[in-house]
Amino acid sequence: MAQGRGGIRGARIGSGPMGESERGDLAPRTTVSFWCGNGHRTQISFAIEAVVPREWDCRSCGLPAGPDPDDVPVAPGHAPYKTHLGYVRQRRTQEDGEILLNEALAKLRGTI
User: Fold this and answer.
1) φ, ψ for residue 100 (rounded to 5)?
2) Which domain of life is it from (predicted)?
3) Would you say 36 is a known binding-site residue?
4) Which of 66, 34, 58, 31 is nearest to 45 (CA)?
5) Under a CB-based contact definition with an 8 Å cutoff, are residues 49 and 41 in contact?
6) What share of the chain is helix, strand, coil (3-state, %, to 5)?
7) Cys-Cys link to 36, which of 25, 27, 58, 93 (CB 3.0-4.6 A)?
8) Which helix (H) or strand (E) holds 43?
9) Closest-CA residue to 102 (of 89, 112, 93)
10) Does the annotation place 84 within a ligand binding site?
C-alpha cells in the first residue's frame, strides 16, 4: 500500500537531471572581502563586470564593513530614546514650563 508520498524524493521540482546544467554557465566571478569594526570578515562573490560597493553589512554583527581592514567604516550614530518630557524640554525653556504650569493650576483652582 502507498504511504502517501510522492514518487520523487530528494530533488526539487524543476531541478532537472543530476549533474546536467540546463541553465548555462555562471558568469565569471570575483570574491571580495569586507571587514567590520569588530574584525569580522565577510566574503561576497560578485560578477566581474559588477560594480563592487564601498560598504557591505557584516553578516555576524550588522555593522557596516569595508574592503580595507585598516580603514573600516564607522557605524552611524543613533539618537538616544527620549521621553515625552525630553521632547517638551527641547521645545520649551524651564521658565516657559513654569508659566504654563501656573496657568494650568489656576484653571483647575477656578481662579481664571
Assistant:
1) -65, -40
2) Bacteria
3) yes
4) 31
5) no
6) 20, 20, 60
7) 58
8) strand 41-47
9) 112
10) no
For 46, the 3-state DSSP assignment is: strand
Burial class (CB in 10 A: 0-12, 13-18, 19+), 10: exposed
* Reported pTM: 0.52
Q: Is 48 a known ligand-binding residue? A: no
Asked if 66 and 35 count as a contact pair (C-beta separation under 8 A), the reply is yes
Render the burial of 90-109: b for 16+ CB within 10 Å, e for the rest: eeeeeeeeeeeeeeeeeeee
User: What local confidence, expressed as pLDDT, does residue 47 receive?
Assistant: 92
Which contacts of 3-11 are long-range, i.e. CB under 8 A and separated by 24 or more positions? none
C-alpha grid cell, residue 77: 550614530
Average pLDDT by consecutive 10-residue portion of the chain (112 residues)?
57 59 77 94 93 93 92 84 86 90 92 75
Q: Would you say how long the chain is, in residues?
A: 112
**How far is 62 from 58, CA to CA, in rounded Å?**
5
